[in-house]
## 1
Amino acid sequence: MKEKYLYEYAVIRLLPQVEREEFINVGIILFCKKMQFIRVYYAVNEQKLQVFAGDLDVEQVKLNLHSLEQIAMGAPNCGPVAQLDVPSRFRWLTAVRSSAIQTSRPHPGLSKDLEHTARRLFEELVL
């Protein structure tokens, strides 16, 4: 029987006008300390963003989301945060911020297949 791993995930949200507190789910971060596993998946629905916030710089949003993914993966060219250990990177990525890209509070779960769980959560909560 395959072991179940405790994981945490957070939803990445885009708030085009932070003061209005309206958001669109654009991604997911899933982390498992025991397996040193972290994944970021994101998708930008440009049509939805055009309706929700027509003056938003979509290319800048994509660049910012790509940076989050690179930090999660520990890319060597992404500065000192990307060089932290996996748990520290997850905590940094999910820290409370007042910017246009934020995350939900982390939620726990158990999974036998972390990659599958990350994809399933992404499909359910973002796509």
## 2
Amino acid sequence: MKAIDIMLKQAQTLSPEMSVKEALDIFFKIKRTGLLVVDSSGKIAGTFTEKDILKQILPAYISNVGGFVYQDNPKGIKNKVADFVNLKVRDVMFKDVVTVDEGATISEVARIMITKNIRQLPVIDKSGKFLGVIGRHKVVSMLVESEA
């Protein structure tokens, strides 16, 4: 079985030119942990995830201090959120997206997901155009069903 056979073809995507406010509206409406960002030519430009949102809102030092807990500063966070929602998705998205070719086998998809710690893997055609997405749940179910 190939990636193109098991991918979800109707995946919700965002535009890099969309405001973060618009993206958040979609994000919360469909209750996802992340969405792909696809440009006007149909190619993947990045991802917009919960992690990207938290990185923008929390203090910059948070990744360096790890387990230390500092007192919340609601006013500071509120100001960061106000600035954040006015940005464009292209300004905050993660750009180094791992993809898989439409002809990849389910085993190759699983290998990439495991080695790259990825929950969803975008599927692209030979020209790099976005075709769909495969989630870990689908890969697991396909592997288990093939053995049953």
